[in-house]
Amino acid sequence: MKRAAAITFVVLASVSCGAAEQVAAPAPEPTTSAPVYNKPGSPTAAPSPTAPPAFSAKVSKVARDRLPYSWRPGCPVHYQDLRLITLSYWGFDGKPHTGELVVRKTVTDDMVTVFKKLYAWRWPVKQMKLVDAYKADDFDSIEANNTSAFNCRRATGSSSWSNHAYGEAIDINPRENPYVTASGSTAHENAKKFTKRPMKGKGVINPGDKVVKAFSQVGWEWGGYWSGAKDYQHFSKGGG
Within a domain: residue 141? Predict the structure, then answer.
């Protein structure tokens, strides 16, 4: 009898202890996830846009050795009266670049004023090197779609000096803006599809557009307005 009572007590004690342990066990804490930010596709994932570099232009004297082909004694302007402009431009790749132009010292402000506007508009220029990179060969520079200014040479089809020889002319994107004869032809195979105006296209200059107006505002005329032959790439101080 005592043995049975003892067994009963042990069983009751086990049940009681088990119940106590269940009550004492801590309740599981609710699982919460910290907010996840910058998930792919969320607005916060994209980095804040970086502003492009501000337009810059530096005007400096031109060392003789920078013009080994484009200047020589007997040119209508001395190289000491020319200036090198190192300036910003937007490329055909949609990125900012730095190019170089040589012009007469009297028109540096004109160039800076116009190209500052082109940069603000992100109007594209293919490339901008001194024509000496092509040994002052105008044809080769045009074939490379190079924008350039000073070059001591004669005007196309004339024995007279070109305005380029005075440092008062510039050719911009010559592939997209070719020299077109009165009959409608061009000497550059890669420019044949650009002989008509108006037309759409990257770096193309059209009558009355903002590029023409920007140059006009500083007193430069566009070759696209010439009678007979058209020189869509060409701007010059006072024409010619």
Answer: yes
